[in-house]
Write a structure and sequence with these properties.
Two copies of one chain form a homodimer. By secondary structure, the first copy, chain A, is an alpha+beta fold. At the A-B interface, strand 2, helix 6, strand 3, strand 4 and strand 8 of A face strand 2, helix 6, strand 3, strand 4 and strand 8 of B. Chains A, B: One of its GO terms (cellular component) is mitochondrion.
Chain lengths: 679, 679
């Protein structure tokens, strides 16, 4: 990418947001799970409007994406998995640079969330038996509707086809106003249509398979997005790979609650790979079949969703897009004050609001451009039926607005579901403000009399008596009091027995209770680490002319905390003394745990043209996002050069490692260092 | 577990090693993949020999294991996954304590290997297409042989049944010397028997299904231990979950090699979950279906397996068990000097030796008892057929000697296999010491003449000519020279054509080559992180009497680096001033990134009996392995108590966090701190 491309990109980016204000399809489309062909269609729509500048902007987002993607692959941030075998769509490997960025992002995430909020971090199995996802609803509902090309057997997502059709029809200026309104209507609800409704639309519109134009199967069939497998050799024990880490936490809730001293709130965090069998994954690093989630399950008393640290974030202002705004015409995300959004009920609780604020701070701290970050509330129909509220942190990149963090109030849904399915009570307790008197049923079988009457069956009869509910017990009591005996069914014996009045005492007793028991609600911030990383790459990428002005150089402007390598150590010339000095610095950095590169072998050709060589070596480091370069140009002192300003300071050999370490760890800034050393 | 049990354990442990010297089945059995019933059988054998003390020792390892296991589950190091649904054997969840230990172990591992050796750490997909494991041989060979209980359908590993039979028969004192020798013979080779041989043994010995005594299916069938799944909706794209992380590295070799400046050695590391579908996993944390591997693939020039840092480890002495020793009668692991073992060729290369030494240092640094750690060489038959040499770091625990790290020279096997299957050359290059002259075949088709003669077929003819090997080319040349033309088969056309002399020039040219190309060998240290952690738990566990002497208290003697929590902060009494001071300390520790516990709520009952309360709180922390307790007994200064010595020092409130931080990070020892503060 050169300067022209770069400036074009900025032009495009500006235009995108203009267009968004006009409510063009590019936003909702890219924000959702649109695949490339649909995006192309939408982008086509955008360009039609911008006809005057069409020739300039046309290929921009794709060109930008490709330019960045090429560097990311070449510098081993990631590459398609199993590339030598042609790869498998939706699978990516992180190379050394990408893995270091991932570790840095996770380390910051732990600091920002797990440590700051005293969360419990756990690690649960990815392999999961079927019963767990039956209980959670994933077996039934974690599906996409698909149709099949009747000729070549290829599968397509039904909603994507209908969406693509509507968007392309809308571009036809000859359609009536009614038709346009109808298409808008379909687009607004397409993600919520049932198989039958989608099938009907496909028939009505005569939609055929993309490219081939073959007929499509009818009606659309649900395809479960979980990968299936079997435990053990019998083939009878069905399991799934988890599509989220949360269920592992829910089924262990009582363990964690007890470990937390039976107190709420209780926050449990988990970082782990999850697996989703996308029908036809595209969008490279954005829609993967295997990816890393970092999830937090913050359990609260549903009667108290306040958060003691909410005041720390309530003054924050950032782009928010409440559902009412999305439903109005011509609206986009606007800067709102978080405190006000919670006070007005736009965000449904302080705790949800607190996490929205923390997620904002985290992403901006990582290096996400806050002008290209918004919090979009799920529309009523878009939310899971059990959710009380849900906001997505969406980051804009060349693929559009991408959901990178979901912050949902899942209510008590999951714990209730697992309680019911497993028969194990997953509840918390709270002290009542004042003790309460309640009536309690007391059933006391008289074992001696029962033993005489029923001998070996006594135990079953006792258990049956004790298992009566209040109504059964009071009816039995009434019968015994009026008739002196009663027929009583003992299921475990498969017969009725006669119970006499002296065999059981039934009464109601008033007792004082001091606790209430309840199923906690859970607020869940769920971070797609790979998506955040990809957006970060795009936001940090820039180009600038070389000093000579004859070429465009690539720079990743990573913050020192995120950068895969914190510095590079370069002896100015091939010289044993300088190389030894470089090794001393490297050793010190290593013992401080600072990731860096050292280049101690300079080719003869480079020595001939030293200045060019140093410039090239800086450029190579800039392209990798290395924030500092240490040029060893004397045996006792060195030059540190900062990547973005290209400013330099001289530091003694003795001091250089600790100076760079303090900047790499975020304890000092480049400005601090310059002020001290130049001042 | 009480003191008696503890002393019994030591007695048992001593006896184990005595017995081992006598070459009892306990070693090879436990070292391999024996399951619990078989171990019980073996332990039974051990106890028969030790009849005199049988009653004392009998239940010891199981009792110890259960005691430790109970605490590990109660304090949330791990617990069975999906427990509320009855669990799935072979799956474990790490609770907050276990996850912290895991993160600490990984952090030390990275420091010790990745950073120290400048390795590239990568993260590859766990989902893997079939073709990769076809190439690697896993689809064919990553299997266990199993037989089926013909009545209830349960599966059993055939080798375990034969092994169990032989071991139990051997205990019969009435068998002849020949019979005993035969049984020993079978035991020595049981893991290498084919399906037919195992089936024959089962028939010969009349072995039936364990417990049920039902007949078994015949012959044993191989069961592949990889979990299968399908990509996408068609069900045609078979994939597997990786059973090791290594293949992801091999298929990406060229990327990493290029990133490393096309230089060897090149070491690539990967930490990731792997999945093995064990037939009937037992041994809880030792034999899991999903577990974390940390693997290193160190690629070297097969002509140069020296290691520049070998002198750093060559003087180490530790328990080694070469294959020759294992094959002799009555031998056990002996302390050998690593340098000598390499010099004598017992270990086949310096690089392999270097990693053995580093693994030893790593494990001991973690806290593994070096007297219960040995390096056992694979026997010739035990090694993968391609391996040049292989040593397992085995750690002794209540399950016996457990393979925790495998250090193998996999030779060039994997890279060759993927090269061949994918058609992509996976080779490295090296400069020749001196340039070499070689004869090179040069085939130059004369396209003009060929075009005139063959028109549309020209391209196929040209390709066929260029594809000739040396012999074919020289034969064609001879024919053309003698007869002026020749019949020539063009496979892609499915016919012969007539080639005339003017249509192709064939010659040999002398060229100078300065490089040789070769497939690197790979040395692979592969760490089973979960197994190492479990052994560490057992090695760090101990009990001691309470101060009052009235009860036995549990202590995990984790080193500060490994301990899940570095300290606990305890206000001596419930008092606002002390609690505020405790919070100040906690805040400082948090900002230093030091994991700790703080207990600011003391019950009234505890206040009544303060000394007991503090003792109980120490005991609770000791049981979790917390190395330091900070008792806040004044608003300006505190007491630090060390877990193992139970010694205490007073420190100012201001200084305490930094003192604990320096010990938690391994920068200072307790002795350093005591010397300074008491001295």
């Amino acid at each position: 990418m050169n300067a022209t491309e770069q400036s074009l990109l900025h032009a495009f980016s500006k235009k995108s947001s203009t267009v968004e204000d006009q409510e063009m399809p590019i936003r909702p489309l890219n924000a959702s799970s649109a695949e490339k062909p649909e995006i192309d269609v939408a982008i086509g729509g955008l360009f039609d409007i911008l006809k005057a500048e069409k020739s300039v902007v046309e290929k921009e987002p794709e060109a930008f994406r490709q330019a960045v993607g090429n560097i990311l692959e070449r510098r081993l941030f990631y590459n398609p998995s199993f590339d030598i075998y042609g790869g498998i769509t939706g699978l990516l490997d992180y190379g050394p640079s990408g893995r270091l960025v991932e570790l840095n992002v996770l380390s910051l995430w732990r600091k920002f969330f797990v440590n700051e909020e005293d969360m419990l971090e756990v690690g649960c199995s990815a392999l999961t038996p079927e019963i767990v996802f039956n209980a959670s609803g994933h077996v039934k509902k974690f599906t996409d509707l698909m149709v099949k090309d009747e000729v070549n057997g290829a599968f397509h997502r039904a909603d994507h086809l209908v969406k693509g059709y509507c968007e392309s029809r809308k571009k036809d200026v000859t359609i009536s106003a009614e038709k346009a309104a109808e298409l808008d209507n379909v687009l607004a609800v397409v993600e919520d249509l049932s198989a039958e409704e989608l099938g009907a639309k496909i028939k009505e519109y005569g939609i055929t398979a993309p490219h081939t134009k073959n007929p499509l199967s009818h009606p659309p069939r649900p395809f479960n997005l979980m990968f299936q497998t079997f435990f053990g050799p019998t083939g009878s024990s069905l399991g799934y790979l988890r599509p989220e880490t949360a269920q592992g936490i829910f089924v262990n809730f009582m363990n964690y609650y007890n470990d937390n001293g039976r107190k709420l709130p209780l926050a449990v965090a988990q970082v782990g790979r999850v697996f989703r069998n996308e029908i036809s994954p595209r969008q490279g690093p954005i829609r993967a079949r295997e990816f890393l989630l970092a999830e937090i399950e913050h359990f609260v008393d549903p009667e108290n969703k306040s958060h003691p640290k909410f005041p720390d974030v309530e003054l924050l202002e950032f782009l928010m897009f409440p559902r009412e705004e999305q439903e109005k015409s011509g609206q986009s995300a606007k800067k709102l004050c978080l405190g006000e959004a919670v006070a007005k009920g736009t965000v449904n609780s302080e705790t949800l609001g607190y996490f929205i604020g923390r997620v904002y701070l985290f992403l901006v701290h990582l290096g996400i451009d806050k002008e290209r970050l918004r919090f979009r509330q799920h529309k009523a129909k878009e939310m899971a039926h059990y959710a009380a509220d849900c906001w997505d942190a969406e980051i804009e990149c060349s693929y559009g607005w991408i959901e990178c963090v979901g912050i949902a109030d899942r209510s008590a849904y999951d714990l209730c579901a697992h309680s019911e399915k497993s028969g194990v009570s997953l509840v918390a307790e709270a002290k009542l403000a004042e003790p309460k008197e309640i009536e309690k049923l007391v059933i006391t079988p008289v074992k001696k009399e029962l033993g005489v009457a029923f001998k070996a069956d006594q135990k079953n009869v006792v258990e049956a008596l004790e298992a009566m509910n209040e109504q059964e017990a009071m009816e039995l009591k009434a019968t015994l009091e009026s008739k002196g005996e009663a027929e009583f069914e003992v299921c475990t014996l498969g017969k009725n027995v006669t119970i006499k009045k002296n065999m059981v005492s039934i009464s109601k007793k008033r007792t004082e209770v001091r606790k209430r028991f309840f199923t906690p609600s859970v607020i869940e911030p769920s971070f797609g680490i790979g998506r955040i990383m990809y957006c970060l790459y795009e936001h940090c990428f820039s180009t600038r002319p070389s000093k000579a002005g004859d070429e465009q150089l690539n720079v990743f402007r990573f913050s020192p905390l995120v950068a895969p390598f914190k510095c590079t150590v370069l002896p100015l010339v091939q010289n044993q003394q300088l190389e030894e000095a470089a090794k001393v610095i490297s050793k010190q950095l290593k013992s401080d745990g600072i990731k860096h590169k050292i280049e101690i072998t300079v080719t003869l050709k480079q020595i001939e043209t030293i200045s060019a060589s140093i410039g090239k070596r800086y450029a190579r480091a800039d392209e990798l996002g290395v924030p500092f370069a240490i040029t060893v140009d004397s045996p006792t002192s060195v030059t540190i050069r900062e990547r973005d300003s290209r400013d330099q300071v001289r530091v003694s050999l003795k001091e250089v490692a600790s100076v760079v370490t303090s900047m790499a760890e975020g304890k000092k800034t480049w400005q601090d260092v310059c002020a001290r050393l130049n001042g």
